[in-house]
Amino acid sequence: MNIPSQPYPNTISDKPKAVCFHDGECPLCNIEIKAMQKMDKNKVIHWVDISRDKQALDAAGISYQQAMDNIHVLDDEQKMITGVKGFLVLWQHLPYYRRIVPFIQKVPFLLSTMEAAYRLFARYRLKITGRMQQSEEST
Fold it and tell me: Disulfide: which of 11, 17, 96, 103 matches 44 by Cβ 3.0-4.6 Å?
């Protein structure tokens, strides 16, 4: 898996430490993503809005449906990570959040509980936000 080859205009570093593929049309998702973007003062994360950049999905080998079903994060070792573990990759590079990552990883059942809650949210997020899922062809 390779980091998409397009330039990273929002990064200071030569190569991002993570690439986050997120649904920029999800109002609930945007609350979290925008908060993380504000904390990413050193611009070490490349934020890819899947609703606007389908070519980045192709370059990363992710289908639009896969990206809609689950957040995807490409780490600095070119490994694709999804779900809460993907959030942990992002949080490791952000102030405040980086302090909770070891806690989440060490507390028994916390990560699995968070994963279950995230899967539930991801499954119903379009209904929760009143959006109908768009097919890849219609976007």
Answer: 17
Helix (H, G, I), strand (E, B) or coil at 13: coil
- Residue 106 CA to residue 23 CA, distance in Å, equals 29
pLDDT, one tens digit per residue, over 61-120 is: 999 999 999 999 999 999 999 999 999 999 999 999 999 999 999 999 999 999 999 999
Angle between helices 97-106 and 83-91 (to 10 degrees): 140
pTM: 0.83
In whole angstroms, what is the distance from residue 69 CA to residue 105 CA?
Answer: 23
**Whether the Cβ atoms of residue 35 and residue 5 lie closer than 8 Å to each other:** no
Q: Domain locations in the chain? A: 18-131
DSSP per-residue codes, 54-103: HHHHHHHT--HHHHHHS-EEEETTS-EEEHHHHHHHHHTTSTTHHHHHHH
Per DSSP bridges, beta strands 80-82 and 72-75 are: antiparallel
